[in-house]
Structure prediction request, 327 residues.
Amino acid sequence: MEKAVRPEYDGTPGRSVIDKKGAFQRSQSAFRNWVTADGSSGFKAQPGRYHLYVSLACPWAHRTLILRKLKGLDDVISVNVVDWLLNFETGWEFNEKRDGCTPDTVNSVKYLKEVYRKVDPDYNKSVTVPVLWDKQTKTIVNNESSEIIRMLNSEFNDFCKTEEQKQLDFYPENLRKSIEDINEWIYPNINNGVYRAGFARTQEAYDEAVIGLFDALDKVESILSKQRYLVGSSLTEADIRLFVTLVRFDSVYEQHFKCNKKRILDYPNIWPYVRDIYQIPGIAETINMEHIKKHYMMSHRSINQYGIVCIGPDLDFMAPHGRDKKY
Prediction:
């Protein structure tokens, strides 16, 4: 049997491997505890207690930054930002000399792997972002973005800046089944589909991934031709999870990961939808396109040997979207 090999580590959840068919595979995140409002989980929601480690380049970490911003938790949960350049041997690094990056203000270490090893000195799994750290017990609560965003959505409501932000619910009970159904096919085919296409080591693996990706994008286009957001008239978790991939698509995935059958610009409903979400107050502040482009194009040398960062495309995310009038 052909041995599985790792691609350049890209900071995504789980231990990434290439299977015997040349297909990119992703395993589970390692830390799966929860913060709860009442503290029944052992981790009580409190202002100033929790800290996020993120990369501005990573779509998974981006989800958590969006929820933190929209829920008004900027002053409740602190954040550190790693360097956009990812070295496969050393992993994510703190480098305050880079614009938009910070030192580690909580644990005062140079590499994120040292944070993981404070919890488990023998830790040998993937060192990923985002990380939700508990300053009180000095441990990692969770490093699975899909779970962190649900904590931010509901468990810190007592500390939101405004009553309006407290009332925001991106995973409302009456829509949960619809949100789960959407997430079930968007995650493997779009969120992870771009990686499966980009890191494929055989034509067969690439074809399977990229065909599934564009079939799913066509399905999204059809849904958005009938309604403003994925599950109806209100923004939900499903939209945020999709948005972080779509906002990177034309700048990175279209060329760097060979996802070039179509651009997001070519979809008459998806492209205005991306602009619609981008223009929600606070969202643009969570996006750093320099970090995004430089991370992918300079870190993944098996894909882009010389680390040359492309100049385009020019994208106007602030152009009128019209979806508020259409639906």
Observations:
- The radius of gyration is 19 Å.
- The first strand starts at residue 17 and ends at 18.
- The mean pLDDT is 93.
